[in-house]
Design goal:
The complex is a heterodimer of chains A (411) and B (961). Chain A is of the alpha/beta class and 411 residues long. Chain A has 2 domains: 1-74 and 358-411, Urease, subunit C, domain 1 (Roll); 76-356, TIM Barrel. Chain A has helices at residues 109-117, 146-149, 168-195, 205-221, 234-247, 263-269, 296-302, 321-330, 335-341, 344-349, 398-404, and strands at residues 22-29, 37-45, 48-53, 64-66, 71-74, 76-81, 119-124, 132-135, 137-139, 150-152, 156-160, 226-231, 250-255, 273-275, 280-284, 291-295, 307-309, 367-370, 381-386, 389-393. In chain A, the strands form 4 sheets. In chain A, strands 1, 2, 3, 4, 5, 18, 19 and 20 form an 8-stranded mixed sheet that branches. Chain A has a 6-stranded mixed sheet with strand order 8-11-12-13-14-17. With 961 residues, chain B is of the alpha+beta class. The relative contact order of chain B is 0.09. Chain B is 23% helix and 29% strand. An 8-stranded mixed sheet of chain B has the order 5-6-7-8-9-10-11-14. In chain B, strands 18, 19, 20, 21, 22, 43, 44 and 45 form an 8-stranded mixed sheet that branches. Among the domains of chain B are: 21-86 and 387-421, Urease, subunit C, domain 1; 89-180 and 205-377, Metal-dependent hydrolases (TIM Barrel, Alpha-Beta Barrel), CATH 3.20.20; 425-479, Urease, subunit C, domain 1 (Roll), CATH 2.30.40; 641-682 and 690-750, Quinohemoprotein amine dehydrogenase alpha subunit, domain 2 (Lipocalin, Beta Barrel). Chain B contains 22 helices and 45 strands. The chains are: A alpha/beta (411), B alpha+beta (961). Chain A binds chain B through residues 1, 92, 94, 165-173, 176-178, 180-181, 183-184, 206, 209-210, 213, 233-236, 238-239, 261-265, 286, 298-299, 302-303, 332, 334, and chain B through 2, 5-6, 9-10, 12-13, 16-17, 96-103, 106, 108-120, 122, 136-137, 144, 156-157, 184, 186-187, 189, 229-232, 236.
Chain lengths: 411, 961
């Protein structure tokens, strides 16, 4: 019998790099948290944004990037993806005990691309072909092992309202069964903690393993983790909300475009939602028989539901968050809302609203120096910064040099 | 722009909400019958829904006053309407997404969890079903728990009415094929190894019963403790325990007798409330089912009704269903709910119950099986499925008897909200009256005429009226075909002789000849047409006055003023024999008319067939002997004039590639020729103004010389004239000399010879001469020939005004005997002198209601002709008033004609002899919707026109309101 690897809860503290200092000068700033600033400096100390303003003074030892004529914005946040995993889901339906920790492959080109595209906060989670999929993880795309990459170790557990087999009623029955099981496990454990004699703990490896397998669900019920629940139909939203209420756990919804009909329920929740890369659907209007496009982000915005956009690396346009944001602007959503959907709202949706997603004093120094406006198709990431450390420079990026030629980043 | 988009989006999402019908309804229905509950009905009531709550008003007082409703409160009038409680569907498998899982035993599954309240279920709701039981699955031994939901009229969240309505077991064949399930242990070990795929129970009935007994026993023993949730791997037995405790029934799908028996056995053993679902052979166990208080959700047997139905039971693989099953069960005291047999028919639940009507299963039982009984079986509170004042509206409104094949709900209410309103089918009109005289067979009492797109779609006692059609109920009224006047001058534009005083109707047209079709003077906007329509005359033949041998051609027009008012350009020719000596010369003359008309007709027929052939094959058919050509060489009759008429030709100008077209109208008097030459000059592309030059000249020895002079130039023409052609030179003043050729227009050629078709000349070899692409060229049109075409084709009649006895034989011999044409005799002389001969020859009689005097006593000409078995066609005549048509027929009735026959004399008979019976003249499917609604039986005192319909359009008649 395989003894499980000791659970190294805080190993990721041996973090990816030591945080650094950096001064970006003369930038056009898109802080996301507030209005755009035509020209300003941003100072990062110890990996955090220390000051924003014109003509900032700093020690000569601090490296300086002159961003004159260029745009500085917070690094993109991807609120949910199955990229970076070898496979999105287990074959079994209820696997809360698996974790993407064991599946993320840091050598995947996805991470390389993310560095290049400026996506520096990534929530990797199991896919939607499941009942309960397992624990997710928030990482940055830089690091040799997952522990180095980790930002938040176990923020989420994947639920799905979309049955991989059977029907939605059995899906609900299975979800309820698993939640009931977790509830009873917690109750038993608490009862046991009261009665267990101290000092004579017999090491029961099998029991420990089983308990570890139940730990994810227990933590969910204790609100230490959040369920990220896939919904593809409006009825899924009804059920997902009811179930979370019934068992009292925290939840974020990941929405397919077909859920647009449930927008009023979402508005009443006042919680950010995550829009899957497929953002629109074409339906036949039952009255006229004519096809109608339903654009989920636009409908969400009209009802005041905050949303995060996600990207899908497998198709050309949808692989870029800026492209998704620009598409949403084309649907009629204001530019600032669209930009927030790929930065600040995305960060909030994964519980990182205080540290990521905008350029504000005190937040992590994750920023991008862009050659042009973020929503422009001609804009490139010239310099990428994570917590004050430059992790990407276009002029040294071999692939980009091959594609675009050498230059000062302004070509 | 962007803001607009938001507004648009906002509206869009509002649309979603309104599709849920969040506002309580306020509307009323004046109906014939209200079924408050099955077997409990009230007549002549107004059912009012105010803010979603039902109120019922009876008695003569005005409902708005009596109930204090605002004056604009909508009250829908449905004289035949019936209101019934909304339907409860006691079983459905598609309204929730319940594809069967792998697992055979899933008691914890709840069907409501598979129901998406946002789905569009209007297709079901419009059938009157507002509440439905959802099955948790089909082909699994223990599929889970069924739920009851409201399908419309409620907010999301309020839709689940009964979450735990039943626990469902299945003993049918379908459960035998459950797949094997692979269920590895949570943590495999040597003690707990990974097993193979598990074979699920229920592959046989014995296995299924064993598995079910096991579950029931375990649940009875340990599952009662509801607080105890099971392990993740263990089955949740709580639902079974709850069923055993009597919280909800166990519904067992069973069709065959043995399966039903097994279900009864289980119920007896474990003492649970049993509902049989499907139940093809449940009727065999009616007494047993009654003894344990079981109910049956019966799948309506899907067989057509068979006379003496139980003598011919239909056997299903899943048992023997009988149409009398419901009656048998009810008689034994088993509550029965009926459900449709097919997926997709969920909304048709009442229809399927209606199909089972028979002894022991009347309309009250049928209604109960889809309302109260169904509600009770699925666990809805008592009172569901009934209508009562003060409750929120949950009912269905029908336009007529709901227990019929062809009725569909017009309105459906659920939870106080209007959730379905049949779409207005504006183009469909149904008229239900006391009697319909179709003039095509016997009159039909209590019949309905359905009109769609201007045509009659159906007529009869039991016809389907599409929901949403405009429906006119006049139980006291009578519908007859629109009247057809066999000859009038309604709608003809004639100018007063004096001044510019605008339009004065009349004087009427006299004999105009066939070369000047009367129909060209038809104006569909003339007010007399409207007057005719109000008088019930929907079609009329335009007829010329007498005064010429060939008095003129007839045409049939509609009086509705529509775009296609002229429905037959050729509808018979009027021949006036006044002054004709009759005898053999007349017969010969008539022969001549008919023969040349036949030839003309043949030239067109052959053209039409060769055109059809060309269109089919792309090739011209083999040239036929050009029969038509001989027409041109018919011996010229008297008065042949080689010059008079309109000539068209071309002038060839030297090297100019384009010939110059010209027309010339000429008149020959003696040797003197006068006329006008019209040429288009000056425009290179033919854009110049045509200029008319008056000319004078001579015609001698076949040579024509004319001269036309104007200021700038003199045109001199010298030509050799042949038969309708000329050739020669033209001197165009300073421009120079040129050659030209011309031919004479056919109508002129004919006109010059007295208006018979004999001299008509088609274009040479036209019928067979093929153009470059092989397309056959049409023969030249000829108004004389056209007028006769419908006659020689056997459709329309020759209308012959007979004025002397000597003419009778000629007409009978030639037109009837020799040519077998339809003939309508006009004038009373015909009756006086040749009644028997005309009648024997099958000649019809056309009359404007003349009276004869015999032995000093007046007698109706129509009656006399009718008694001699002559078909009679009423026509108000060229100088009569079209509005008198009905009155003329009325007098004929007074004089002895049977009313039904008199009616035909102003409908079917005129249509027949005008060749338009395929479109008007009777009420038949597919014909034009030309109807007259009379206030009573035709020709009874006081009967008046209430409404006229022409081509489906209703023309209200004064006094009808």
């Amino acid at each position: 019998m395989r003894i499980p690897r000791p659970f190294i809860a805080f190993a990721f503290l041996a973090a990816f790099v030591s945080a650094q200092d950096l001064l970006v000068r003369n930038a056009r700033l898109v802080p996301v948290a507030g209005p755009d600033v035509a020209k300003t400096d941003v100072l990062i100390r110890d990996g955090r944004i220390a000051a924003i303003g014109e003509g900032l003074k700093a020690d000569l030892s601090i490296p300086v990037i002159d961003a004159a004529g260029r745009t500085v914005m917070p690094a993109y946040v991807l609120a949910g993806t199955t990229e970076g995993l070898d496979r999105a889901n287990e074959n079994m339906e209820i696997t809360p005990y698996v974790s993407v920790l064991d599946a993320i492959d840091p050598t995947r080109p996805f991470f390389d691309d993310s560095v290049r595209d400026g996506v520096y906060t990534i929530h990797v989670m199991p896919g939607s072909r499941t009942v309960i999929g397992g624990a997710g993880r928030v990482i940055r795309p830089v690091g040799r092992v997952v522990e180095d990459m980790t930002i938040v170790p176990d923020p989420s557990v994947t639920f799905s309202m979309v049955p991989p087999q059977g029907n939605r009623a059995t899906q609900m029955a299975k979800l309820r069964g698993a939640l009931d099981d977790a509830k009873r496990y917690l109750e038993n454990k608490e009862a046991a903690a009261d009665t267990r004699p101290s000092g004579s703990v017999k090491l029961d490896l099998e029991r420990l393993a089983i308990e570890r397998r139940r730990e994810t669900m227990a933590r969910l019920l204790k609100k230490q983790m959040t369920a990220f629940t896939y919904c593809s139909e409006p009825g899924d939203v009804v059920r997902a909300l009811a179930l979370a209420k019934e068992y009292g756990y925290q939840q974020r919804l990941v929405l397919g475009p077909g859920t647009w009909k449930a927008v009023d329920l979402l508005a009443a929740e006042k919680q950010p939602v995550i829009v899957s890369p497929e953002m629109e659907t074409e339906e036949t209007d039952p009255d006229t028989g004519k096809p109608v496009r339903r654009e989920l982000p636009a409908i969400l915005h009209a009802k005041g539901v905050p949303f995060a956009l996600t990207a899908r690396p497998t198709s050309l346009g949808q692989r870029y968050l800026w492209y998704q944001a620009a598409s949403v602007v084309r649907m009629g959503v204001p530019r600032d809302v669209a930009l927030r959907a790929v930065t600040l709202t995305a960060a909030e949706s994964i519980g990182l609203g205080k540290t990521k997603g905008s350029i504000e004093t005190g937040k992590d120094g994750d920023l991008l120096v862009l050659s042009d406006d973020p929503l422009s198709g001609r804009s490139w990431v010239d310099v990428g910064v994570i917590e004050g450390k430059v992790v990407y420079e276009r002029r040294t990026d071999r692939r980009m040099v091959e594609v675009l030629g050498l230059g000062d980043g302004k070509n | 722009m962007r803001r607009m988009l938001f507004i648009l989006l906002a509206l869009l999402s509002v649309g979603v909400v309104s599709a849920q019908d969040t506002k309580p309804a306020s509307i009323g229905f004046r109906v014939k019958q209200l079924h408050q509950a099955p077997g409990q009905a009230q007549s002549d009531v107004v059912v009012v829904v105010r803010d979603g709550v039902v109120a019922v008003h009876t008695g003569p007082a005005d409902v708005r006053t009596a109930m204090g409703l605002p004056s604009d409160f909508e009250i829908v009038d449905l004289p035949e309407g019936v209101v019934v409680p909304a339907f409860v569907l006691a079983h459905s498998r598609t309204l929730a997404q319940v594809a069967d899982p792998e697992e055979s035993l899933m008691p914890a599954t709840v069907a409501a969890d598979a129901f998406d309240p946002f789905d569009d279920r209007r297709a079901v709701v419009r059938g009157g079903v507002t509440t439905a039981y959802l099955s948790p699955g089909l082909a699994r031994l223990v599929a889970g728990q069924g739920s009851v939901v409201r399908l419309a009229g409620t907010e999301v969240g309020g839709h689940v009415l009964v979450r735990h309505a039943s626990l469902r077991f299945a003993l049918t064949d379908s459960v035998r094929s459950a797949p094997n399930v692979f269920n590895p242990p949570l943590l495999p070990s040597l003690d707990d190894p990974i097993p193979g795929a598990e074979i699920q129970p229920g592959k046989t009935r014995a296995g299924a019963m064993d598995a079910l007994r096991g579950l029931l026993r375990r649940a009875a023993a340990e599952g009662r403790d509801a607080a105890k949730a099971p392990d993740v791997d263990a089955m949740d037995l709580r639902p079974i325990a709850r069923a055993l405790a009597g919280e909800f029934p166990i519904r067992i799908a069973a069709d065959r007798s043995a399966d039903v028996a097994a279900a009864i056995e289980l119920a007896r053993e474990f003492k649970f409330k049993l509902v049989i679902e499907g139940g093809n052979e449940a009727w065999r166990h009616a007494a047993d089912l009654a003894s344990i208080g079981a109910s049956v959700v019966l799948r309506a047997v899907a067989v057509p009704p068979v006379v003496g139905n139980d003598l011919a039971p239909v056997t299903f693989e899943s048992g023997e269903g009988r149409r009398s099953a419901a009656a048998t069960l009810i008689a034994a005291g088993v509550p029965v709910a009926i459900v449709p047999p097919f997926v997709g028919e969920e909304g048709e639940v009442l229809f399927h119950a209606t199909r089972l009507l028979g002894p022991g299963f009347g309309t009250a039982e049928a209604l109960a099986s889809v309302t109260t009984s169904a509600a009770r079986i699925v666990g809805l509170p008592e009172g569901t499925g009934t209508i009562a004042a003060g409750k929120s509206a949950e009912f269905v409104v029908y336009g007529r008897n709901p227990f019929s094949t062809h009725e569909r709900p017009l309105f459906v209410f659920s939870a106080g909200r209007l959730v379905h309103r049949a779409k207005d089918k504006g183009d469909v009109v149904a008229i239900t009256v006391g009697r319909v005289h179709t003039c095509d067979g016997d009159p039909i009492d209590g019949a309905t005429v359905v009109v769609e797109d201007g045509k009659i779609r159906a007529v009869g006692k039991h016809v389907s009226v599409p929901a949403g059609a405009k429906w006119i109920h006049r139980p006291d009224a009578v519908v007859v075909p629109g009247f057809v006047d066999g000859g009038t001058q309604v709608g003809l534009r004639a100018y007063a002789s004096a001044g510019e005083g605008g339009l004065v109707l009349g004087p009427k047209f006299g004999a105009v000849g066939t070369e000047a079709p009367l129909v060209e003077n038809f104006d569909r906007d003339l007010p007399d047409l409207r007057a005719a329509a109000h008088a019930g005359v929907t079609s009329a033949a335009l007829t010329p006055g007498f005064g010429k041998l060939v008095a003129g051609g007839q045409a049939v027009v509609k009086t509705g003023g529509g775009k296609d008012s002229v429905i037959a350009k050729s509808a018979g020719v009027v021949i006036d024999l006044a002054g004709n000596a009759g005898g053999a010369p007349l017969a010969k003359q008539l022969d001549g008319f008919v023969e040349s008309a036949k030839k003309y007709h043949e030239s067109w027929s052959s053209y039409e067939s060769s055109l059809a052939e060309w269109k089919r094959t792309g090739k011209a058919s083999a040239p036929k002997a050009p029969e038509s050509r001989s027409l041109g060489t018919v011996t010229a009759p008297k008065g042949k004039d080689p010059i008079t008429g309109t000539w068209t030709g071309e002038i060839k100008m030297g090297r100019s590639p384009r010939p110059l077209p010209f027309t010339m109208s000429a008149k020959l008097e003696g040797t003197k020729v006068t006329g006008e030459l019209t040429m288009t000059m000056g425009g290179r592309r033919g854009g110049g103004q045509p200029r008319a030059l008056p000319f004078e000249g001579t015609f001698e020895g076949g040579k024509l010389k004319i001269e036309a002079a104007q200021e700038q130039m003199t045109v001199t023409v010298e030509a050799t004239v042949g038969r309708d052609v000329m050739e020669g030179t033209v001197k165009l003043g300073p421009i120079g000399d040129a050659t030209f050729s011309a031919s004479r227009g056919e109508s002129d050629a004919a006109a010059s010879s007295g208006g018979t078709p004999q001299d008509s000349k088609p274009a040479e070899g036209a019928a067979t001469k093929a153009a470059d692409d092989g397309r056959p060229k049409p023969p030249a049109k000829n108004d004389n020939g056209e007028a006769w075409r419908a006659i020689v084709a056997g459709k329309a009649a020759v209308f012959v005004h007979i004025t002397a006895e000597a003419q009778v034989d000629a007409v009978v011999e030639s037109l009837r005997g020799k040519h077998d044409l339809k003939v309508v005799a006009l004038g009373t002389t015909a009756l006086k002198q040749g009644l028997q001969r005309l009648a024997a020859a099958g000649v019809a009689f056309g009359t404007s209601g003349e009276m004869l005097t015999e032995d000093g006593m007046p007698e109706s000409a129509a009656d006399k002709a009718f008694r001699a078995k002559m078909p009679v066609v009423f026509r108000t005549g060229a100088s009569g008033d079209v509005r008198d048509l009905y009155g003329i027929a009325e007098i004929a009735v007074r004089e002895g004609v049977d009313p039904e026959d008199a009616l035909r004399m102003i409908t079917r008979q005129p249509a027949r002899f005008l060749g338009v019976l395929d479109r008007v003249g009777s009420i038949e499917r597919g014909k034009d919707a030309d109807l007259v609604i009379l206030s009573g039986e035709p020709f009874t005192p006081g009967a008046r026109v209430l409404m006229t319909m022409i081509d489906g359009k209703i023309l209200e008649t004064e006094g009808s309101r």
